[in-house]
Amino acid sequence: MKSIYLLGECMIELMNSSSDTMKQSFAGDVYNSAVYMKRCFPETHVGLVSAVGADTLSDKMRQRFASEDINTDLVFTHQQKVPGIYLIETDETGERSFTYWRSDSAAKKVMQFVDAEVTEQLAGCDMLFFSGISLAVIDEESRPAFWQKVTQLKQAGVKIVFDPNYRARLWKNEQQAQQQFNKAFELSDIALPGVDDFVSLYQIDSSDGVQAFCESFDIAEVIIKNGPASVISVCDGQSQQHVITPVENVVDTTSAGDAFNGVYLGARLNGDSISQAISKASKAAGIVIQHPGAIAPKQAINATLI
C-alpha cells in the first residue's frame, strides 16, 4: 500500500447560513487535499501530521478525520491549545472575505510532538506533503527542527512535496516567507506552485517565469497551476502544457487547488503518468468548484468520478 502523510493545520470553519445562524465545519489546505486524495484513491494510506486540543470541537474534528478514513496516528493532542477558527463572509456581490483566529492554535506546536520515534514512522512512508501555510503556522522557533526532520526524511528516501500556497497575513514580511519557501524548494522532489502565489511573493506573473525560478532548484517534478488556463509540467528539463477544460458552473473556488493537489499526488503514488495525474486532478478540481465550501459532498467526488 502506498503511503503519504500531510503536515499542517485543520481549522474550524464558520459560515453564515442565515442572518443570525452559522454553519460549522472543518477545513484547511492539507486536510482538504487529504480528503480528496483518500476519496479518489481509497487504497492509499493517507495520514495527517498535526495537533489539536483536548476540547469538544477537537474531538469532533478527529471524528471527521475518521469519517473520511484519514489516519490520525500522528494527530497529537495539546492539553493547553485549541483548533484555529476562521469565518467566511460573503457580500452582496458574492465576494468572500475571511477572518481568522489562530494565535492559540494547537497546530502551531506540532513539532513538539515530532520526536525520533515519529520521525522513524514517517520515514516509512512514500511521500511527505506540506504547504506554505503549514510553514507559516509552525512556531518560528520550531522551524529549524522542522527542516532538520524534513532533511532526515529526504535522506531516508521519502519524496518531499511542497505547495507554496502563500498567505501574506501569516508572515512577518515577504523576506521571511521567501527564505522559508526557498528552503522548501531546495528539499522538494515535487513542487506544486501556482502562478498567483508567485505574483504576490516573487513578483513573477507568468508560468514561464515560475518555471525559470524553479529550474534554479533541483526539483524532479514541477507542476505549475496557471488558474483555469492550463497546467504546465516540467520534468527532466522538459516542459509540457496541459489544456484544462473550463467549468461554467463555478460556485466556490476555495479548495480547487487543494483538490488538485490531493488527486494529483494520489494518482502519481498509484502509478499514473504526469499527464494522467493532471487530467484526473483537473477533473476533480472542476467538480469541487461547483459546490459551496471547502469540502464537497462525498457523492459528488469519489474514485468512480475521476
Would you give an account of this structure?
The relative contact order is 0.14. The longest helix has 15 residues, at 274-288. 36% of the residues lie in helices and 25% in strands. It has 306 residues and is an alpha/beta fold. The chain has a single domain (3-296), classed as Ribokinase (UDP-N-acetylmuramoyl-L-alanine:D-glutamate ligase, 3-Layer(aba) Sandwich), CATH 3.40.1190. Helix 1 crosses helix 9. The strands form two sheets. It has a nine-stranded mixed sheet with strand order 5-4-1-8-9-10-11-12-13, with helices on both faces. Strands 3-2-6-7 form a four-stranded mixed sheet. The chain has helices spanning 29-40, 56-67, 116-122, 132-137, 143-155, 174-187, 195-202, 207-214, 256-269, 274-288, and strands at residues 3-7, 11-18, 21-27, 45-52, 71-77, 85-90, 96-101, 127-131, 159-163, 190-191, 221-226, 230-235, 238-243.
The number of distinct helices, counting runs of at least 4 residues, comes to 10
The gross shape turns out to be globular
The percent range for strand residues is: 25-35%
Please report the first level of CATH classification, the CATH class.
Alpha Beta
Quick description:
36% of the residues lie in helices and 25% in strands.
How is the topology of this model organized?
Blueprint: E1 3-7, E2 11-18, E3 21-27, H1 29-40, E4 45-52, H2 56-67, E5 71-77, E6 85-90, E7 96-101, H3 116-122, E8 127-131, H4 132-137, H5 143-155, E9 159-163, H6 174-187, E10 190-191, H7 195-202, H8 207-214, E11 221-226, E12 230-235, E13 238-243, H9 256-269, H10 274-288
Parallel strand pairs: 1-4, 1-8, 2-6, 4-5, 8-9, 9-10, 10-11
Antiparallel strand pairs: 2-3, 6-7, 11-12, 12-13
Helix pairs in contact: 1-9, 9-10
